[in-house]
């Protein structure tokens, strides 16, 4: 019986490591995408670019929430706090552009 438990434990560990690698890769892709969008001057953003920035931040928030669900000691609020401010500011700018009928030419 012990070898089976050891085998299950090994399989679980391998799966956990694969999952961690997948989540880490996804996090890095989202981070790179957000950073690339932030490198562009906000003066040149149109409503769609603000929307895409917010979508990427929402994806990252969903990932952070998932990690917090899986790991009770994960500090979700601390990790997401800087992004929350950015998300809100981008939302205000997008709303302003939509209300004014702003379109980048």
Can you tell me about this structure?
83% of the residues lie in helices and 0% in strands. With 105 residues, it is mostly helical. It has one domain (2-100). Helix 1 (2-39) packs antiparallel against helix 2. The longest helix has 38 residues, at 2-39.
Q: What portion of residues belong to β-strands? A: under 5%
Q: What's the helix-strand series?
A: HHH
Give the overall form.
elongated
Integer count of domains: 1
Main β sheet profile: none
Please mark out the parts with pLDDT under 50 across 5 or more consecutive residues, or reply none: 1-10
Q: Which structural class do the helices and strands define?
A: mainly alpha
DSSP summary: helix tally: 3
Question: How much is the average pLDDT?
Answer: 77
* Rg, Å, rounded: 19 Å
What distance separates the N and C termini? 70 Å
Care to count the β-strands? 0
Fraction of helical residues: over 70%
Helix and strand arrangement:
Elements: H1 2-39, H2 47-70, H3 76-100
Helix pairs in contact: 1-2, 2-3
Features:
about 100 residues, mainly alpha
